[in-house]
Amino acid sequence: MSFFKKLVKSVRGSAEKVARDPHGIYLHVRCTRCGAPLRVRADRRHDLQRDYDTGTYILHKEMMDGVCFSLIHATLRLDARHHIVDREITGGEFITADVYQALIAPAEINEAKVPE
Ligand SMILES: [Zn+2]
Predict the structure, then answer these.
(1) In the chain, N or C terminus with fewer CB closer than 10 Å?
(2) How far is the CA of 87 from the centre of ligand 1 (A)?
(3) Nearest-angstrom CA–CA distance, 51 and 57
(4) CA–centroid distance, residue 58 to ligand 1 (Å)
């Protein structure tokens, strides 16, 4: 069981895996209430709903941050080639992957550098 947990953790935590994930759509958002950054993965094969009128895809994603547990709803519209053409969010704001990394990285670095 612990092996499985480690496996799940390593898959989720690996930046390399993210880069090699052709079906993943990663959303980086920040909670409006507490400012916590979070990243969620959607899957192109399962999470996209086809809009037959326009030939685009709709992606609804509901997420909860781990700090204040607010619900964040994101709705994205993607074109036929899965490029995001429009997006809306309630309860949070969209941030870039770089901002996400910057928000989570300083805490880890500071923690490692705390002098005894
Ligand atoms: Zn929050």
Answers:
(1) C
(2) 20
(3) 6
(4) 25
Distance, CA 79 to ligand 1 centroid (Å)? 30
Distance 62 CA to ligand 1 centre (A): 13
Closest CA to 57 of 47, 70, 66, 65: 47
Arithmetic mean of pLDDT over the chain: 84
Domains in the chain, number: 1
Cα of 21 from ligand 1 centre, angstroms: 27
pTM, rounded to two decimals? 0.71
Scored b (16 or more CB within 10 A) or e, 57-95 reads: bebebebebeeeeeebebebbbeeeeeeeeeebebbeeb
- Its domain, for residue 44, covers 2-113
